[in-house]
Design brief:
Layout: H1 3-7, H2 45-99, H3 106-126, E1 131-132, E2 144-150, E3 160-165, E4 167-170, E5 173-176, E6 178-183
Parallel strand pairs: 2-6
Antiparallel strand pairs: 1-4, 3-6, 4-5
Helix pairs in contact: 2-3
Length: 187
């Protein structure tokens, strides 16, 4: 089949009105189950065309799967490199803080390390994982992990009274939940 015929739409390949065979008006008998067609049985051009289109669709799907399998590791590596590059300034600033660790002014070292921590928290926020460490909010199992229960007479039961380890992310998309102490029900 020439290339021009393969690229034409299906509606262009229908025979003109004068070449079409008339459709019988009598009811057709119910089709009998076909056990298996022999390889030598002649097939209509429509069946051959449909089989050709089906094979091409399968080949396209197979090519798409192979391309996706090739591109997936590259995409993962690119995303890992992007996240790691976002943390490089944090590492650089930690090295600067360690270089100044011998200084006599411990307050400057503490404030420098605090600034580096804030920078790391900002990087996580920019990657889509904001920090949360709120107290006085109701306990939510998808955001919090209870590590202790305390008696707090002035707070309602199930309220976060202390955050022991901050959480990162949003409900349904977290790096980790916040480890919290929750008030217990007063008896």
């Amino acid at each position: 089949m020439p290339d021009q015929e393969q690229t034409r739409p299906a509606e262009d390949r229908t025979p003109p009105e004068s070449e079409r065979t008339p459709v019988p008006q009598t009811p057709l008998p119910a089709p009998e189950p076909v056990e298996q067609e022999s390889a030598s049985a002649p097939r209509s051009p429509e069946v051959e065309e449909l089989e050709d289109r089906w094979r091409r669709a399968l080949a396209d799907l197979d090519n798409l799967r192979k391309r996706y399998a090739r591109e997936l590791p590259r995409e993962r590596e690119a995303e890992r490199a992007k996240a790691a590059a976002a943390f490089l300034p944090v590492v650089d600033n930690l090295e600067l803080a360690l270089a100044h660790a011998g200084a006599d002014d411990h307050g400057a070292i503490v404030s420098g390390v605090r600034a580096v921590r804030d920078q790391a928290v900002e990087v996580l926020r920019n990657l889509g994982y904001p920090r949360y460490e709120e107290t006085g909010v109701p306990f939510h199992p998808e955001q919090h992990e209870v590590v202790s229960v305390v008696d707090e007479p002035d707070t309602p039961a199930g309220t976060v009274v202390q955050v022991l380890r901050p959480g990162y992310g949003e409900p349904g998309r977290q790096l980790r939940p916040a480890a919290v102490a929750v008030s217990r029900k007063q008896e």
